[in-house]
Design goal:
single chain; 22 helices; five-stranded mixed beta sheet; about 500 residues; four-stranded mixed beta sheet; globular; about 50% helix; alpha+beta; monooxygenase activity; Cytochrome P450; heme binding; Cytochrome p450; transmembrane helix; iron ion binding
Length: about 500
C-alpha cells in the first residue's frame, strides 16, 4: 500500500506541475479552460461528430485570430495566417498530426510525410500525374462514369406518377465517386454502381475507422502510442484483408506489381491527386517513384478523393434542392445554354466556365460546407514567431478553422451563414478573385497545395449540369433531410430523394 501511495503522489505531482507548465506557455491565448492543460477537450470535440461546428462556435465565442484548443495547440480562422504558414519559404513545418494518416509501415505517402525533403521529393515527382496533365483520357473517363450514374438512376431509382422509388442520394453519390476515382486511375471502376452496393465494404470500413483515425491525429499522446510502425504492423490494415481498406491495399498492390513488369508498355496515364491511381506505366513510375512508394501512395489517393469529392457534391445538391430560387435559376441557365447549343453532351469544362450562375453555385456550395474540417496542423519554428500581434512560442501547433474562414462576414457579407450564390455575381473582378482565393484554401496553399485541385474542379463543373439537365430531384423527408457526422470528412447518409425524368414530365 505504501508503494502505491508513493506512486500516486509522484504521478499526481508530475501531472500537476506539467499541467501548470502547459497552461503557462500559452496563457495569453483565450480558449476553453480544460483545453489549457489537457487534450481531453479536443478528444471530446473530435468524437462528437460535429467538431467543425464546435470550432466555429468557439471562434465567435473567444474572438481574435487564435483560439487555444489544447495545451500546445492553437486554431486560427485568419486566412493570411494560413497563407503565411504554408508559403514556400515559411519556417513553419508539418506537425506530427500528419503521422496518423500512415497506413503502410514500410513507406510513407505524401499526405502523411512530416519530413519536408521527403514531402517535396514526392510532390515534385507526383505533380505531373496529380494535375491531370498526363491523363489525356481523364475527361472522357469522367463523362463515362456520369453516363453510368445516370443509367443507374434510370434503371433502378427513376420515379413516376404511379411508382415512387426513393433513393438515398448520399449513398448513391458516394458509389458514383468511388467508381469515378477508380476508373480514372485504375482503368476499371470499382463496381459500386453496377452492384448498387459498397463493394468490399470499403466505404463502411472507412466511415467506421474515421473517429479513431481523427482521435489519433488530434491527440498527441494517442498518436505517439498508436500511429507508429510497430502498431501499424500489429493492428493496421493488411493486404490479406478480405474487405475494407486492406482489400484496397491488396488491389492496388497487384496493379503496381503488374505495372512494374518490364514488358508492360508505357502509356500516358498515371496517378492523379484526388482522382487517380496508376494504369500501365504511369506518371509516378516515369518520374522515379519506387514500387514501395507507389504501394504507399495509391490507397491514400482513393481515400482522399472519394470522401472529399462526395461530400462537396452531396452538400451542394442538398442546398440546391432546399433553395427553390437557386434550383430554378440554375436549371434555367442550363436549359437555355443547351437550346442555344452552347453546351454539348456531356458538358466540357470550357463550356461550363461560361455559365456564370453554375460557377456561383459551385463556389457557394464549397464555401457552405468544405469537404472536411481537419486540422492540417503546422508547427511554429523553434525560435517562435510573432504574428497578428501575438507572440507564438516555438513548437506551438497551429490548426486551421476552415469553416470560420469560409463564413467570414468581412469577406462574404453579413449573411455569410446563408447559401446564396448571388453573392458571387455583380461584383467587381478584384473582389470576386479575393473571394475565390478564400474558398480555394480548401485545397491548401503554397507548397502544401493539393496538386489535384484542377481535376477536382473539373469534376464539379460537370456533375451538376449533367444531373439537372435530365432529372428533377425532390427531398422525401424535408424535415429531416439527412444524417451527418464529421470526422475526417463528412459521413452523409439518409438523404432520401425522389428522382423523376424531366423529359417525361414535359411530355
Amino acid at each position: 500500500m505504501g508503494y502505491f501511495a508513493i506512486a500516486f503522489v509522484v504521478f499526481a505531482s508530475y501531472y500537476f506541475i506539467s499541467s501548470i507548465t502547459a497552461w503557462h506557455r500559452l496563457r495569453h491565448f483565450k480558449g476553453p479552460f480544460l483545453a489549457s492543460f489537457s487534450y481531453l477537450w479536443v478528444a471530446r470535440t473530435t468524437l462528437s461528430g460535429r467538431a467543425y461546428k464546435i470550432y466555429h462556435e468557439n471562434s465567435h465565442k473567444y474572438g481574435g485570430p487564435f483560439v487555444r484548443i489544447g495545451p500546445d495547440l492553437l486554431i486560427t480562422d485568419n486566412a493570411e495566417m494560413i497563407r503565411r504558414m504554408n508559403s514556400a519559404r515559411s519556417p513553419y513545418r508539418r506537425d506530427g498530426w500528419y503521422d496518423a494518416f500512415r497506413t503502410n509501415p514500410y513507406s510513407c505517402a505524401m499526405v502523411s510525410s512530416t519530413d519536408e525533403e521527403h514531402h517535396s521529393y514526392l510532390k515534385t515527382r507526383t505533380a505531373p500525374g496529380y494535375s491531370g496533365k498526363e491523363i489525356p483520357s481523364m475527361e472522357s473517363d469522367l463523362a463515362g462514369q456520369l453516363d453510368n450514374f445516370k443509367r443507374y438512376i434510370r434503371t433502378k431509382y427513376l420515379s413516376t406518377d404511379k411508382d415512387t422509388k426513393p433513393v438515398d442520394l448520399g449513398t448513391a453519390l458516394h458509389y458514383y465517386v468511388m467508381d469515378v476515382i477508380t476508373k480514372v486511375g485504375l482503368g476499371q471502376e470499382w463496381g459500386c454502381l453496377a452492384s448498387d452496393s459498397d463493394v468490399d465494404s470499403f466505404i463502411r470500413a472507412f466511415n467506421q475507422a474515421s473517429p479513431f483515425m481523427m482521435l489519433c491525429c488530434d491527440v498527441p499522446w494517442i498518436r505517439r502510442l498508436l500511429a507508429n510502425n510497430f502498431m501499424l504492423r500489429l493492428i493496421g490494415p493488411k493486404d490479406t484483408d478480405r474487405t475494407g481498406f486492406g482489400k484496397m491495399m491488396s488491389v492496388t498492390k497487384k496493379i503496381v506489381e503488374h505495372r512494374f513488369q518490364p514488358d508492360v508498355e508505357q502509356q500516358n496515364d498515371m496517378l492523379v491527386s484526388c482522382f487517380a491511381l496508376i494504369r500501365r506505366r504511369g506518371s509516378f513510375m516515369r518520374h522515379g517513384l519506387s514500387k514501395m512508394q507507389c504501394d504507399a501512395e495509391l490507397p491514400v489517393v482513393v481515400i482522399a478523393g472519394s470522401d472529399t469529392s462526395a461530400s462537396i457534391i452531396k452538400a451542394t445538391m442538398l442546398y440546391i434542392m432546399t433553395t427553390p430560387r437557386v434550383y430554378q435559376r440554375l436549371q434555367t441557365e442550363v436549359d437555355k445554354a443547351i437550346e442555344a447549343r452552347r453546351v454539348s453532351s456531356p458538358i466540357t469544362q470550357p463550356e461550363a466556365r461560361q455559365l456564370s450562375y453554375l460557377q456561383a453555385v459551385i463556389y457557394e456550395g464549397i464555401r457552405m460546407q468544405p469537404p472536411s474540417q481537419i486540422f492540417l496542423t503546422k508547427r511554429a519554428p523553434p525560435e517562435g514567431d510573432t504574428a497578428l500581434g501575438y507572440r507564438i512560442p516555438g513548437g506551438t501547433g497551429i490548426a486551421w478553422n476552415l469553416l470560420s474562414i469560409l463564413q467570414d462576414k468581412e469577406m462574404f457579407g453579413e449573411d455569410a451563414y446563408l447559401f446564396r450564390p448571388e453573392r458571387w455575381l455583380d461584383i467587381d473582378v478584384e473582389k470576386r478573385q479575393e473571394m475565390e482565393r478564400h474558398v480555394e484554401l480548401i485545397f491548401g496553399y503554397g507548397r502544401y497545395m493539393c496538386s489535384g485541385k484542377q481535376v477536382a474542379m473539373l469534376h464539379l463543373q460537370k456533375v451538376y449540369v449533367e444531373l439537372l439537365r435530365e432529372f428533377d430531384f425532390q427531398l422525401v423527408y424535408p424535415k429531416s433531410a439527412w444524417t451527418e457526422y464529421q470526422y475526417n470528412g463528412f459521413v452523409i447518409k439518409d438523404m432520401w430523394v425522389r428522382i423523376t425524368d424531366r423529359q417525361a414530365e414535359t411530355n
